Amino acid sequence: MRPATNDARFSVGAAVAVWVGAYVAALPLQAAVIAAFGRGGDDPDTWPTSVTAVSILCLWIPFVVGLVIVSRRRGGASFTRDFRVGFRPVDLVGLPVGVAAQFVLVPLLYWPLSQVFPDAFDPDDVERRANDLWDRASGVWILVLILIVAIGAPLVEEFVYRGLILQSLEGRFNDAVALVLSAAWFAAIHLQPVELPGLFLVGLVFGLCWQRSGRIAMPILAHIGFNAAGLLIASR
């Protein structure tokens, strides 16, 4: 039996409202920032790291605000309790789990896919986005990229996709169904078809970390390990 993830579960409706509201709020912010940098109409894959970083912050800020609001209005005693913020030494297991997911599980998943569907799942295409991000960064922006990818993204995304969305789905469905639905949601929002299988797989891994530990720390650490390992691959 897994530890109870939370005493105060958010409804699926509240989770969807936060998610949609954050994106709706982020769109005009991102548009204004992109225009201010003179990058309106440019392919995001051509943006310098500075523009990418500010654009990501424009999405993260509404999400953080949304998490605080839903905790106050629909949660329990406190933000930390609502999102099961806590740490035990066992949570450090998340780091090697995330690294193993990047170096072992994802390649094992994509090897048969690339053999059966070589055009759809070319290994170079799977790694292209991470490689492009790394190649566009230089100097101090390499540090900024590392902070965004290896620290910021795991923190924000785990609070949203495990702490809020998975937890809300657990209140409606059994744990297995909630886990699969949250992983599918997590994969789909990245809008990269070639990455969907891998993102779905790691969504399952991060979700299992949440369900097994009953805390947000382990999936955050697993996500950090996974993303940091991905940057290491891109830097080679």
- Content-based structural category: mainly alpha
Order of helices and strands: HHHHHHHHH
Portion in strands: under 5%
Low-confidence stretches: none
Which bin fits the share of residues in helices? Answer: over 70%
What is the radius of gyration?
18 Å
Q: Describe the biggest sheet?
A: none
Tell me the distance between the termini.
Answer: 42 Å
Molecular shape: globular
- Overall tally of structural domains: 1
Helical segment count: 9
Tell how many strands the DSSP assignment holds. Answer: 0
Q: What is the mean pLDDT?
A: 91
Summary?
It is built from 9 helices and no strands.
Topology diagram in text:
Elements: H1 12-36, H2 49-74, H3 79-82, H4 94-116, H5 123-136, H6 140-172, H7 175-188, H8 196-213, H9 217-235
Helix pairs in contact: 1-2, 1-6, 2-6, 4-8, 4-9, 5-9, 6-7, 6-9, 7-8, 8-9
